[in-house]
Amino acid sequence: MAKEEGSHWSHVLKRRIAILEKDERNEEEKKAEETELFTKYYTEWRSGVETDESYKTIPRFYYKLPAEDEVLLQKLREESRAVFLQRKSRELLDNEELQNLWFLLDKHQVPPVSGDEAMINYEAFLQVGEKAGPKCRNFFTARVYSKLLHNDPYGRISIMQFFNYVMRKVWLHQTRIGLSLYDVAGQGYLRESDLENYILELIPTLPQLDGLEKSFYSFYVCTAVRKFFFFLDPLRTGKIKIQDILACSFLDDLLELRDEELSKESQESNWFSAPSALRVYGQYLNLDKDHNGMLSKEELSRYGTATLTSVFLDRVFQECLTYDGEMDYKTYLDFVLALENRKEPAALQYIFKLLDMENLGYLNVFSLNFFFRAIQEQMKLHGQEPVFFQDVKDEIFDMVKPKDPYKITLQDLVNSCQGDTVVSILIDLNGFWTYENREVLVANDDSSNTVDLDET
Fold it and tell me: Where would I find the PP2A regulatory subunit B'' EF-hand domain in this sequence (predicted)?
């Protein structure tokens, strides 16, 4: 027994030594092979001979846009894009197919009714998907169903919610295709002229704009386009991604004008409505006292309640595009959009650039004091006792709570949700007065609400 065990261990040991010797030989062979290959490739590189052509199998992923003088290539590109977009358009559900989908959903509703809404469970949902046709296949998935699944005790979803989801998706794709037709470069964005053409051709399809004179079309288009570019092109590149246009609510507001029974309140709050566009353009004409089609600083000073400080207006004319020291309608629209939407980051960015005189990227005590001195001067002119800057400065820093206790950045203003109040305090006497008397104004509102309640 012991002899057999000794023989076994001897055999194992010999085999182990043989493996180690083999590994050593392999290492030597590997080093020799490595040296040989290095010498070969190094010699080929030094001699300039290229033998590796594997790069030729890499698929091409960049195609240079045709130059302006390459008319044939441009036409070919336009035609191929048009054919592609037409094919994509045919893949979408048309009105008849949407009606058929609604009929199938209604036919497969599962009781009991939840409130006023018809419901459908997952099994019936899949049955409708099989009957609805290939165009609907992407809508009838577990992922879509789970998105619309809320608190139904039977695990069902609302038929109306699902149908609205489908309608919204179809509308988005239709609009994407419609906007892409104006994308001359075919790069997924629209230039200012592209968006102008889109809106100009859209006007006849919007019943709420039927009353506009054709002579006003160019001013209307300029007014509409500026809102898109002011908010969606903060770096002023001169182009907007079609994706960004679809993601924001502006296009919804514009297409809301298809509703022939749009309320007066909705029209007044919609930047793209005829009354709104006429209001903005009318204000511009009223400010233009010398009727030269441009606004001087003195003319712009009467904007709104005529309480913007002269220091702030100086900065507007220093930083914004002017012609011989006067502002055109397009620049005026940016100015109006900034002051009417002071809570929005794009508007705060516009005003912050004007307040940041030294282009430091932040506001310090010096810059705050510089602008507030103009507010104090206006208060004196109106016979009011000026407020001490130290008090206002402390309140501003308390409101904003910047990361650096001595500097207020644009991001600090945005994060604080008090940016509109801060800039109003610094540039507009009326804005400062509203802030100073906020408690009185709130008390007056409360008392008027109490009276209304008592009367009812």
Answer: 184-260
Spatial neighbors of 313 by CB under 8 A, at least 6 apart, are 297, 300, 301
The one-character DSSP state at 304 is: T
In the chain, what's the furthest Cα-to-Cα distance?
122
Query: What architecture (CATH level 2) is domain 190-274?
Result: Orthogonal Bundle (1.10)
Cβ neighbours of 320 (radius 10 Å)? 16
Q: Give tens-digit pLDDT for 38-72.
A: 888 777 777 765 556 666 677 777 778 888 888 89
Helix (H) or strand (E) holding 241: strand 239-241
Domains 190-274 and 317-442 agree in fold:
yes
Contact present, 261 and 207 (Cβ < 8 Å): no
| CATH number at 317-442 | 1.10.238.10
**Could you write out the DSSP letters of every residue in 85-144?**
HHHHHHTS--HHHHHHHHHHHHHT--SSPBTTB-EE-HHHHHHHHHHH-GGGGGGSSHHH
pLDDT digit string, tens, across residues 417-429: 999 999 999 999 9
Q: Where are the domains of the chain?
A: 10-44, 77-180, 190-274, 317-442
Return the number of other C-beta atoms located less than 10 Å from residue 312's C-beta: 19
Name residue 114's beta-bridge partners.
117
Whole-angstrom distance, CA of residue 16 vs CA of residue 455: 104
What are the residues facing 158 on neighbouring strands?
119
CB 238 within 8 A of CB 321: no
pLDDT at 23 over 80: no
Q: How far apart are CA 424 and CA 308, in angstroms?
A: 9
